[in-house]
Every structure is written in structure tokens, then in C-alpha cells.
Amino acid sequence: MYKVLIIEDEPGVYMTLEDRLISEGYQVTVKEDGISGETEAKKGIYDLILLDVMLPGRDGFKVCENLRDFGISSPIIMLTARNTDLDTIIGLRQGADDYISKPFEMSILLARMEAVLRRYSITEKKINPQTNSIIFGNFELNRDRGILLKNGVEIQLNAQEYRLLEFLAINTGKVMDRNDILDVVWGYDNESTSRTIDVHIAKLRHKLGESEIPKHIITVRGRGYRFDITQNQ
Asked: Which domains are delineated in the chain?
């Protein structure tokens, strides 16, 4: 049974959500403000968090950011009555896994929840807690040792190639836009460009043996790149 935390201050919304999710077999906890919701989420016991943006005490964007900084990796779907591209971008950059605008069809929300939980479950199964490794295909990205292995043999990566691969791999299933990649991998003050990312992606694909047909590092036209951990499993 999946445990879901709802952080939402509108009774009409959270009562409807709670009733429907319980009927669907979820175990549900509700918190009505950002501060208590964040405290509850930090217990780390929830499989999914439904997080409203406009909350008393602390807004959902800040709650999401704080949870990711704290190390909470549970999937987060943000809920909001505001429907703007900027809100979506802010939410995703703060670490949300998905974003849905009110009013929404319950069937659509349930489908989004199932998709996020399925993706999260796949990713978690590919992480070896003993070596802190991410497993994909014949490869092992050993984060404790900072190396990439193929069938147990190390593949030489330079520092930037390793950081880029690690960043994409730990965000499996998410589309990472070029600005975020530059900020995290190269640093805010670095003068590198999108072309730099493309060059390093090409080198990584070559070392992964997928220059012709990308299997793990997928280009999302007009947005950036997505890492697919499920290929060739």
C-alpha cells in the first residue's frame, strides 16, 4: 500500500482527494499548511507527496526546495490553481516530478500518480545501496568511487563527463533543460554554452557505445536531455 501525503489547505480539495485515494487503496495523511506539511514529509515515510503551491505558512515552492535539500527523494506532484508556464518551470526546478493545474480530473491525477510511482520504483530498484551505484544495462555508475563500469571494467571519464552522467542518471526519467545542466554541472558563473553540453553528451554516448542510436541519454528536442534507465534491462 502506497503512503501519500497531501499538503493542501482547501478542505473541498483535500477531502475529495483523501476519500478517492483511500478508495483506490492508498494510505493518506493530510496537512493543511506548508510548515506542518514540510515537517511531516521530512519523516521520509511517504511514497508520494501531493503539494499545493498556495499554502499558509510556507508556499509549496519553498517546501519542495527544502525537502529536496533535506534529502527527501519521494516523488512530488505540485497542485495549483495558477496555470502559467512560469509556475511550472519554478516547480520543476525546485525538484517537483510533475505539475497539475486545478481544477483537474481525478482520473488524470491518478494516472499521473501511477506514472510517477512506477518511474520512481524502477529507479529505486536500479540503485545498489551497498555501493551507492546506479545500474543501467551492462553499466554501473559507482557514486562512492566516482567511476563508470561496464561489465565490471572501468570506462575512463573525465571529471565533467562523470558529473554530467551522474546528474542525468540521478534524475532518471526527468527532462533536464540545458540551463539546469549548465548550472549544476559547470556552475553558475561558468561561461560554457549549450554547445559544450552537446559535445560532452556526444562523448558520453560514444563511451557508452550508443553514438548511432542513443539508448540511455535521450535528446528531447527544444528542451534538453532525459536519462532512461530502463533501456535494455
From this structure: 3-125 (3.40.50.2300), 127-227 (1.10.10.10)
- Euclidean distance between CA atoms 217 and 168, whole angstroms: 8
User: Per residue in 168-225, pLDDT tens?
Assistant: 988 887 788 888 888 888 875 556 677 889 999 999 999 999 988 888 999 988 888 9
End-to-end CA distance of the chain: 26
Nearest to 182 by CA among 172, 195, 169: 195
Phi/psi at 47 (5° precision): -85, -20
In eight-state DSSP terms, residue 212 is S
pTM: 0.55
Interatomic CA distance for residues 113 and 48, integer angstroms:
8
Q: Which residues of 22-48 are buried (b: 16+ CB within 10 A; e: fewer)?
A: eeeebebbbbbbbeebbebbeeeebbb
128 pLDDT band (50/70/90 cuts)? low
Flag whether pLDDT at 227 surpasses 80.
Answer: yes
CA 44, 45, 46, 47 dihedral sign is positive
CB atoms within 10 A of CB 189: 6
